[in-house]
Design a protein that fits this description.
alpha+beta, eight-stranded mixed sheet, seven-stranded mixed sheet, 13 helices, 28 strands, HATPase_C_sf, ATP-binding protein, plasmid
Length: about 550
């Protein structure tokens, strides 16, 4: 090979000890070896490695060191398309090779010096009496024995043959050992694993060489489980790897068939398990791939009213079995949903409400469920009446409204029979939020309420927070905690003003302000603060009075 070609070795192979060992082990496997022994000894310039196998050996040394000429049988060529470049990974390194083919009475030996790969110098082939098999010795500059052993452990981890390093067997693992399900495919095996794949996770084992190209994955529509496929390649004609390094698949018809087979195997694994939570679209895809799956489990999350700050608040996840009494609740904005949930908290149908899940549309059991919608609040306040719905209030709520009554109305649709009924339930609070209300604070919210012991300022503060607090992620905004603290201060003042009047709202703001400086009051003392009109502030400290 030309000197220019040798300089490109590290662009075709990484030139690392791992790449070299990987290539040589593949050659030993193709030669039918039953074991490989590797010895390593320190050299002043690095590590000198000797690889010995008991394979069929090489009849013609020319084929072993000639670029692109592998000399493998037709069977090997059809099964895995060898590049004829295994020994090429050693180009430019001082290398000794000896071998004896099984049909030969004697073997041969060659020494290729570091500068002998170009063909400028003759390489003498020396007869050698030796056992059938091949031995390769080469110098790896800058590599220690410890590094070699560590890397060999990775290279031989999924290798199909026993490998020994300085006399000790290197541990091996089954590439599909942790699979939940394994299927045969065209001479190879496809395993199904639960969980997401990370970027560098191996997905394909080519007789010990691993690839990271993602093959196929399927995520369940509910529950968050993901399944992915891995491939342990056997003798699978048609599958080809990009030469010379064989780190990527060739994008051909066989690879497309492999990807379809991986998807089919994932669905077969779920069919074998007998239950799943796939979307209806995935269910149809499985059917098209020849896998008959039952419908998804008839379970749905219990309905919880939406809140504005949904990204930073974890809602308790609870599933309920869907049945004849189950009612889907379509997506409802927080201002309507919070009033709906509060009004329904003691109602018999509340436990039957579940989250709407459009990905299940198409399943027979899902399409047969009832659905709640058309939610409205009818507010009666003296001669003035308002209807509050998802598209606003009619007429508008220009301010907070103290009402005599609020009636919640909604419809329950039975989609299969195209029938509906209207429910009417008393409520004590309803909300309207401006178009920009999610990010603008409590000044955007309008509250209609019926006074009563159940609607306390603390309860109203929680509702206001759920309806319209959403922290800004602008780069100049305060931290989430600071934004939340300021919002709650404003919400407490608003709740006090709405339910208790302006004086109590002022008192609530003063209490909030003083709460941040209580630490300055000495232990065992109390303080009386008098604020005169203008700016005069009188502060009197005294001993704490015993409780009367």
């Amino acid at each position: 090979m030309s000197p220019k070609t040798i300089t490109k070795v590290t662009r075709l192979f990484n030139g690392t000890i791992g790449d070299i060992l990987g290539e040589l082990l593949q050659n030993s496997r193709r030669a039918g070896a039953s074991r490989i022994d590797i010895a390593c000894c320190a050299d002043q310039d690095g590590a000198r490695l000797t690889l010995v196998d008991d394979g069929t050996g090489v009849a013609d040394p020319q084929t072993m060191i000639a670029l692109g000429d592998s000399g493998w049988s037709q069977h090997i060529h059809e099964a895995e398309d060898p590049a004829g470049m295994g020994v090429f990974s050693l180009a430019g390194k001082d290398t000794r090779i000896s071998s004896r083919h099984g049909d030969a009475d004697t073997g041969w030996s060659v020494h290729v010096p570091a500068d002998g790969w170009t063909g400028a110098k003759d390489i003498a082939v020396v007869p050698l009496a030796r056992p059938v098999g091949t031995t390769i010795t080469f110098l790896m500059p800058g590599v220690s024995e410890q590094t070699t052993e560590r890397i060999l452990r990775e290279v031989a981890k999924f290798y199909p043959l026993p490998v020994f390093f300085n006399g000790a067997q290197v541990p091996r693992e089954d590439f599909l050992a942790k699979a939940n399900y394994i299927a045969e495919w065209n001479g190879s095996q496809i395993g199904v694993f639960e969980g997401r794949e990370y970027h560098q996770d191996p997905t394909t084992n080519f007789h010990g060489m691993v690839l990271t190209r993602k093959l196929a994955s399927v995520s369940e529509s509910l529950g968050g489980k993901t399944y992915h496929a891995r491939l342990d390649i056997g003798a699978t004609p048609g599958l080809a790897l990009v030469l010379p390094a064989r780190k990527e698949f060739v994008e051909n018809a066989a690879f497309a068939a492999l990807q379809a087979a991986c998807k089919r195997t994932i669905y077969a694994a779920l069919a074998h398990r007998g239950q799943h939570r796939l979307s209806f679209e995935n269910w149809k895809e499985a059917r098209d791939l020849g896998v008959a799956l039952p419908e998804a489990d008839p379970c749905l999350p219990r309905w919880h009213a939406a809140i504005a700050e949904s990204d930073n608040v974890n809602v308790e996840y609870e599933e309920v079995a869907a049945g004849a009494d189950t009612i889907l609740v379509a997506d409802i904005e927080p201002d309507i949903a919070q009033g709906l949930e509060r009004a329904l908290r003691e109602q018999p149908l509340r436990p039957h409400l579940v989250e709407n899940h459009p990905a299940y549309a198409g399943y027979g059991w899902y399409d047969a469920l009832h659905q709640l919608g058309n939610v409205r609040f009818y507010v009666s306040a003296g001669e003035q009446g308002h209807v509050i719905a998802e598209n606003g209030s009619f007429p508008p709520l220009d301010d907070h409204v103290r009402a005599e009554t609020i009636e919640l109305r909604f419809c329950v649709f039975h989609r299969a029979s195209e029938t509906q009924r209207e429910e009417r339930i008393p409520a004590d609070v309803a909300f309207v939020v401006g178009e920009d209300g999610w990010y603008s604070g409590v000044d955007q919210i309008r509250i209609a309420f019926v006074p009563g012991p159940a609607l306390t300022p603390e309860t109203l503060v929680d509702l206001i927070e759920n309806v319209c607090f959403c922290a800004s992620d602008d780069s100049e905004a305060d931290s989430w905690d600071t934004q939340h603290e300021h919002f709650l201060r404003d919400a407490r003042e608003l709740a006090a003003r709405v339910l208790l009047g302006e004086d109590e709202a002022v008192a609530a703001r003063i209490r909030d302000t003083l709460a941040s400086i209580l630490w300055v009051i000495p232990k065992g003392r109390q303080v009386a603060i008098t604020v005169a009109p203008g700016t005069a502030i009188d502060v009197q400290l005294s001993a704490c009075q015993p409780a009367g």
